[in-house]
Amino acid sequence: MSEKKTETNAPETVKEDDGKVELYIPRTSQRGEQQVMIGINGKNWIIPKGQRVRVPPFVKEEYERSVAAADVMYQRREELIHEESDRGE
Fold first, then answer.
1. What is the distance between the alpha carbons of residues 89 and 85, in angstroms, rounded to a whole number?
2. What would the pLDDT profile of 49-88 be if each residue is shown by its tens digit?
3. CA 57, 74, 37: angle at the middle one, nearest 5?
4. Is-above-0.90 flag for pTM?
5. Per DSSP, what are the bridge partners of residue 38?
6. How far apart are CA 6 and CA 84, in angstroms?
C-alpha cells in the first residue's frame, strides 16, 4: 500500500475578531509627513500613511470627521475668496 503524505509548512492562524477596523490614509507626497497622529482623550495613535492598519472604530471615525471638517473649511475659504474678488477688494 502507498501512503499519502500531506505537508503543511504554514501554521494555520485564525484571526479573532478584535473589534478593530481597517484604516488607510493615502500618502500625499514623498516629502510630506509620512504619518498622522490622532489623539483622543489623552491617548495617541501614530498612523503611517500608505499602509492599511487596524484601529479601534472611534479612531477611524475621528480621522473621517477631521477630513470632512477640513473639506468644509477649504470650501468656505474658497467661497470667501470669491466673494472678496466679486466686491473688487
1. 6
2. 999 999 999 999 999 999 999 999 999 999 998 888 877 6
3. 35
4. no
5. 45
6. 75
What are the residue boundaries of the structural domains of the chain, listed by start?
21-87
State the cell numbers at 8.
503543511
Residue 22 · residue 57 · CB < 8 Å: no
> Mind spelling out the 3-state secondary structure of 43-66?
EEEEEECCCEEEECHHHHHHHHHH
* More confident: 8 or 29: 29
Segment 17-55, tens digit of pLDDT: 789 999 999 998 778 889 999 999 999 999 999 999 999
In one-letter notation, the amino acid at residue 16 is E
| Total number of residues shown for the chain | 89
